[in-house]
Amino acid sequence: MCDTTTMILWHPAQAWVRKQTPATTLLCRVGSGQATYHRFDPRLKQHQITYGKRMIMSKHQPDAVAGWLSGREIRQRKYFDGEVTTLNLLAHTCCHEFAHLLQHVSGQRYRGSVHNQHFYRILDELHASGGADAARRHLAEQAAGGGMTVPEQPIVAPDNRQLMAKWSVGDAVGFGAGKRQVEGRVIRVNRKTCTVEGTGPCSGLRYRVPVVLLRALTD
User: Which domain of life is it from (predicted)?
Assistant: First the structure.
């Protein structure tokens, strides 16, 4: 994924990025956890994209895919014809994080407004221009060259009714990951979401959470 991001996405955009911010570089790295993100170090003039190992593992597991924004984006915005596969998820993740890089360079990333209309305009263009397809091909070729297989079988969308049936008032649940992980208890089961009252450090806060993002916690 790091090589795909650098070779397929960064190289064509590098001259434009450096025109906006001279001497800018890109570092792609692999993190040990699930966190996957873009950040910019102004001191080094360096964009950094981190791909979490656990994120990659999760996107190989059909039951875990529903909780990822990348899967919802593919289905809702019809990227790759709306077909969710592990290969499509990983290629789209490269595009998603690189779109954040371009969004930052364009000055359209704001505190509290990250996945905004400017971001999705850039992401749509990456798919419409063929950049996403090129990333998918390169990713598949790199995997094959390394003796690995990346599943291309469609992953069926979860049945929302079955997901809703899993939760009841009082259930201990968690959502998010890393420093953004939240724990709480279900206080209301809605039509497509659960209202969760935070516990521990999140005590006193309430969240309305899509059921696909929830996971059960043991007391």
Answer: Bacteria
